[in-house]
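Weekly structure sync, notes
Attendees: PL, DS, HV (note-taker this week)

Item 1: FAD-dependent pyridine nucleotide-disulfide oxidoreductase
DS walked through the input record. Source organism listed as Desulfurivibrio alkaliphilus. Sequence as pasted into the shared doc:
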Amino acid sequence: MSERIIDVLIIGSGPAGLQAAVHAVRKKAEVVVLGKVERSAIYQAHVENYLCVPGVTDGSELMATALEQAQKFGAEVIAEDVLNIEQDGELYKVKIESGRQFMARTLIFATGNARKKLKVKGEKELSGKGVSYCVDCDANFYRNAKVAVVGNESAAVDGAITLTRYASEVHLVARKLEASPELRAELSQSPVQLHEGQWVKEIQGEQAVAGLVLENDTTLEVEGVFIELGAKGAMDLAATMGVAMDPETFSFIATNKKQETNMAGIYAAGDIAGPPWQMAKAVGEGCVAGWEAANFAAKQKRADAA
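Item 1 (cont.): predicted structure, written out as tokens:
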């Protein structure tokens, strides 16, 4: 099977990955982007807090533009997932779904940070239509609305308290509350309505969220449901290669200001490199990662030619 040697191979085609592609290509690097744009967290979201984008814009529209830009500049985008990565000397061997293999001088992990799902009726259908996985991203869309947060840990409690500054009514559904004592105390002093010992049975709604059905068949009439179950990073491939995670939570890839990981030639950008989960951060880190990876590849090629 033939193997191509790519200067910069980017795993993930969201804002971080496509911005990295644009900057790497502009540095005259050969770039391949792997991933499915529609899987990006921003694809089904609405954006209103990104500089130079006025009003509320569909994430799918932004990503369509980003994809077109990356391809126009010369990046090759392949809508396939990675199956395996191995180190081969100074290069990295990457196998994708179709069985094709690439040899890459550098890798950029920009796969986002996949949110854990409830896996209940209505969740998938209403994603982006009232179902959200990021309070910080979407709280502003629910001013004076009734909302619910689902989760047991500190992220859910913090999200519920944050939403009290926006929503008219906030419910917190927790099977067993496991938040820190400090957050528990703050929660008890807040207007959040706690439903402990319950879980979600169904999310109701046709074109938008209209209600949340609990296991005891109680229905909460809400317009928004925030699922805060913690975040599981799509980092198995990186971790098995020895890429270091953050030392405190082990939930994202540790990088420096150049988006470098602990392994030479491997970079990370966007949600997979840690919070905040914002497109502005993802794009900025993608810019840096693409620039630095292209420089690394160029130096490696010069050394090979010497």
